[in-house]
Design the sequence.
């Protein structure tokens, strides 16, 4: 599992995430950001889950636990991403 701060990668964050997945296809990547609008960009770029730094500690733990549960099942599905995000959409 990799916790990745989206903002540290600058404008090339999506490309960097694609390179990480090319090198480590089974690696779970959880993107962190203080900007909630990054959520959809991160998932579209291949992140398995997203944690906003403004999320409550309980939501952050829920996301990390969901990632751990899904870890043995290979890449995330839309259902497991929704579970990790704590949403139904």
Sequence:
């Amino acid at each position: 599992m990799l916790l990745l701060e989206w903002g540290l990668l600058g404008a090339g964050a999506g490309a960097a995430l694609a390179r990480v997945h090319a090198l480590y296809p089974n690696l779970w990547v959880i993107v962190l950001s203080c900007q909630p609008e990054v959520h959809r960009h991160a998932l579209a770029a291949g992140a398995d889950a997203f944690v906003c730094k403004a999320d409550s500690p309980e939501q952050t733990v829920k996301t990390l636990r969901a990632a751990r549960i899904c870890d043995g099942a290979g890449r995330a599905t839309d259902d497991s991403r929704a579970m990790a995000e704590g949403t139904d959409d």
Summary: The CA atoms of residues 17 and 46 lie 7 Å apart. Confidence is low (pLDDT under 50) at residues 72-89. The first strand starts at residue 2 and ends at 5.
